Amino acid sequence: MISVLVENVSKIYSRRPRQFLHSAVSGWLRRGHRELFHALKNVSFQLGEGESLALIGPNGAGKSTLLSVVAGLSWPEEGTVEVYGRMAAVLELGSGFHPDLTGAENVRMNAALLGLSRRKTNELFDRMVDFSGIGDFIEQPLRTYSMGMTMRLAFSVAIHVEPEILLIDEVLAAGDQAFQARCMDRMLALKREGRAILCASHVASTLRRICHRALWLDHGRVVRQGPLEEVLAAYEEASSAPAAG
Amino acid sequence: MRVSGNYWFLLSSLILRDFRVRYRNMSLGVFWSLLNPLVMMGVLTFIFTKVLRSDDHPNFHVFVLCGLIPFNFFALGWVSGTISIVANASLVKRVMFPREMVPISTVLANGLHLLIQIGLLLAVALVSGYTVNRWWALLPLVFALEVAFVCGLSLASAAFDVYFRDIRYVVESANMLLFWLVPIFYSFTVIPPKFHFLYQYNPVAAVVLACRNILLEAKAPPESLLVKLAAVSLAVLLAGLWIFSRLRRRFADYL
């Protein structure tokens, strides 16, 4: 069963910001030369049930853009994205969290945003809070939390909504060792349960434990796609080669 | 996928969040909802009964409050609805959920204030000697139509505001103009008949007129007024939903 199918996706930005009327007018007058920027160009891949795919590549390669296109947050100008199953995305530290609300209020808000019902949220609430290890701080406003605590809370909610497809962008790097270990266990468990995982990271050791395939992006294009070790080796070789690209 | 019960949980969570965030760091809290219309009522009553003496309505303070409360909700709801998508950029960019919920929940959070203020209006009317009549039953319908109207306007303006951040200033200016063009401190009868359509087709003015019919004159608002109010409000709501759905695809690129 296929969980995510991405075919010939391109994401194109016009480089010129059109915030102001005068630039819109001058842009219209010179509309011949619109400078286009391809954040993604002709990207295709598929992710099956129980599969986990690593996204690798340098900063600005298009990993985050690809994740937000798959999440349905951003629309591709070309190509199609098909998603089968409930998806949860952890794309940024504590996105959707409000600093003035308490940890507990934020957990419930985030669960609602991720599509849980009131009953399901009540049912899972204790487990989410326990997993985060926030303890008594859960009744404190979020602005009193450290970065690591915020991240732990966000991650706890995301993995407890029982997603069929999990998208993760670089967020595992934040928490402490113990929490990272627990996250890893939980992700491996999700993988065993047959959930699909799409994970962008620069940490090869993390990727080696979770993913078995990799997609190497550079300048929005797929450089190579295949078994994790092969792609990682090629990527590491290319990155260490002096001024190759 | 989501079921309708989950939608309601999400919507009520967003409304509650708005409400909590606004009042958490205030000492007077909901009291502000009451203070603002009372102060405005006092000032306008002073000016129009003591300084200008233009209106001889026996209970001018109730008369003016009937205008202020629907207008206040309209003005605040529309402005906060307009900026809601940009103000919640991190949510809209990073979490997948029905984006319509953002302006709608913002307007409905203002609707909670409207409820409190309607309570105030009814209390002031009763204290001033008016009595409950059967047409009061129409008030929920009249105000629900105004809420629908503001939701529709906000959906459209919030979507445009993502692309052109000047929209919020357009909305603020429009509100200033409408303060004069809605019959807040003057009555419908002083308006020349050739301009009547301007007021009947403006849902905010229509709500004000209907409120006065019900509360001050103890009679049903003219059927034609209610029909126009319902038609314009629901049309604006549908148009707003349609415009929003056309513009939401590129939100993430502009936030």
Please give a structural write-up.
The complex is a heterodimer of chains A (245) and B (255). The relative contact order of chain A is 0.18. Chain A is an alpha/beta fold and 245 residues long. Chain A has one domain: P-loop containing nucleotide triphosphate hydrolases (Rossmann fold). Helix content of chain A is 38%, strand content 26%. The mean pLDDT of chain A is 84. Chain A has a six-stranded mixed beta sheet, with helices on both faces. A three-stranded antiparallel beta sheet of chain A has the order 2-1-4, with helices on one face. Chain B has 255 residues and is mainly α. Chain B contains twelve helices and no strands. Chain B has helices spanning 4-24, 31-51, 60-82, 84-87, 89-94, 101-127, 139-163, 167-181, 196-200, 203-215, 223-247, 251-254. In chain B, helix 1 crosses helix 6 (101-127). Chain B is globular, with a radius of gyration of 19 Å. The mean pLDDT of chain B is 90. Chains A and B meet through helix 3 of A and helix 1 and helix 5 of B.
